[in-house]
Design goal:
By secondary structure, the protein is α/β, with parallel strands linked by helices. It is built from 14 helices and eleven strands. Helix 8 crosses helix 10. It binds glutamine. Glutamine (GLN) binds next to loops.
């Protein structure tokens, strides 16, 4: 009742959801009945979860934020959704996003723009802006997003919530609409690190429907956290923390930099050894990411042809059917990415763009490996600025892409990263939240959650 009531009151301003489930109350009553009967309950019994609209749900529409899939209802649940339901969670609705995950503000949704709950004249970030805003406005307890180049971490930072991008392969991508398959991961949002850890546990593990999902053992993430009672005993003693030099220099908001430096001091007080590290290929990651993500997208999005699902144009010749369905259904950003990707992959340009971007990816992976051999975790801001105004960057795609500088390298390297609120800067009505990004080696999510928990 409390959550639905708040959702109804806040949704006209925030617009986090593209679809709200009609069966939430019935499902919650079912949990009540189970409690009364003393039956065994799943670990997430009755927990309300928002699901990004590019993650398939059998009983609700799944559009990926695109008009081309308006009205589409998948025949199956994504593995992550199935696992959450098996643990007892209730899906409250499908959250707004930039079309197919391409964007950083939700302004690229084919349906609506979501507002930042801290200041409704500002963007919530993106592309998982609906999932971040919904947790921030307490319209649901936790939510799922997807992160190809920062789409969980940057909105978590803008909305003042916790966001986790797991290791590539930690969570099955089965039922996640593919944007750039070698970078895509399903991630989690919570209003605390503990909530995020619990959700990560529920969705992690191998899945025979996703060949890239890992068989690596899944630890009990929530039990790895440090108890508040132990904070006096220097619980981080000996932890080696590298602050990434390239992320705290020119072009980064001064208030953001000082929040990150304050966080470093806090880690030192708790026993960590903080040093500055340099990742020489850091600035190359952004252009390489946009070449690779667009190239993979141009191939992945060929499935939206007006025949298999979604929008179908009226045309009497097959090529017009394809062309018109796509012209009507895709928004401008998606069309631009398809053109960029097709160009980068075409025979004459392949070596100059796609192949070169792959070479840069190898360099980025190596520089992360070197830095993480010497450090347990790396820290940086999650975004160079706090949330900006709706409309501010909408006509300047390069400025918007530049805002992804802090996050894209992590996807190129395939490693996990956690964002937790670590401070505020001036702006908005009562200040704007800043998120600290913590990065670890593959499958070290437990280490990140342990450190992130300290910021609560
Ligand atoms: N903003 C980035 C892009 O548009 C990242 C998006 C994402 O992680 N899905 O590609």
């Amino acid at each position: 009742d409390e959550y639905l009531d708040r959702l109804r009151r806040t949704e006209p301003q925030i617009r986090s959801f593209l679809h709200v489930s009609e069966t939430v109350m019935r499902e919650a009553e079912e949990v009540d009945r189970l409690v009364e009967s003393g039956a065994a309950l799943g670990p997430l019994a009755g927990v309300l979860i928002g699901v990004k609209d590019n993650i398939c749900t059998a009983d609700m529409p799944s559009t990926g934020g695109s008009k081309i899939l308006e009205g589409y209802r998948p025949a199956f649940d994504a593995t992550a959704v199935r696992m959450l339901k098996e643990a007892g969670a209730i899906v409250i609705g499908k959250t707004n996003m930039d079309e197919f995950g391409m964007g950083s503000t939700t302004e690229g949704s084919g349906f609506q723009v979501t507002a930042n709950p801290w200041d409704i004249s500002r963007v919530p970030g993106g592309s998982s802006g609906g999932s971040a805003a919904a947790v921030s406005a307490k319209q649901c307890v936790v939510s799922l997003g997807s992160d190809t180049g920062g789409s969980v971490r940057q909105p978590a930072s803008f909305c003042g919530v916790v966001g986790l991008k797991p290791t590539y392969g930690r969570v099955s991508r089965y039922g996640l609409m593919a944007y750039a398959s070698s970078l895509d991961v399903i991630g989690c949002f919570g209003s605390s690190v503990i909530d995020t850890a619990i959700i990560l546990n529920a969705v992690s593990g191998h899945d025979r429907f996703d060949a890239t999902s890992s068989t690596h053992e899944v630890p009990e993430y929530a039990s790895c956290l440090i108890s508040i009672d132990d904070l006096d005993s220097k619980p981080l003693k000996g932890l080696r923390v590298g602050m990434i030099r390239e992320t705290i220099g020119d072009g980064v908001d001064m208030g953001v930099v000082s929040s990150i430096k304050d966080s470093a001091l806090h880690l030192e007080e708790l026993g960590a050894i903080v040093t500055e590290v340099s990742l020489p290929s850091f600035s190359l990651g952004l252009p390489a990411y946009y070449i690779l993500a667009s190239s993979e997208a141009s191939s992945n999005l060929s499935r939206y042809d007006g025949v298999r699902y979604g929008n179908q144009a009226t045309a009497d010749e097959l090529n017009y059917l394809y062309g018109d369905s796509r012209a009507e259904g895709f928004g401008p950003e998606v069309k631009m990415r398809i053109l960029m990707g097709t160009y980068a992959l075409s025979a004459g340009y392949y070596d100059a763009y796609y192949k070169r971007a792959q070479q840069v990816r190898t360099l980025v992976r190596k520089s992360f490996k070197d830095a993480l051999d010497k450090n347990d975790i790396l820290i940086s801001p999650a975004a160079p600025s706090p949330a900006y105004k709706i409309g501010e960057k909408v006509n300047d795609p390069l400025a918007m892409y530049a805002g992804d500088i802090m996050t894209v390298n992590v996807n190129l390297a395939g490693v996990p990263a956690l964002v937790a609120p670590c401070g505020f800067v001036e702006g908005g009505i009562a200040g704007l939240p800043v998120g600290l990004q913590m990065i670890a080696s593959a499958f070290n999510e437990d280490k990140l959650l342990r450190v992130g928990h300290i910021f609560e």
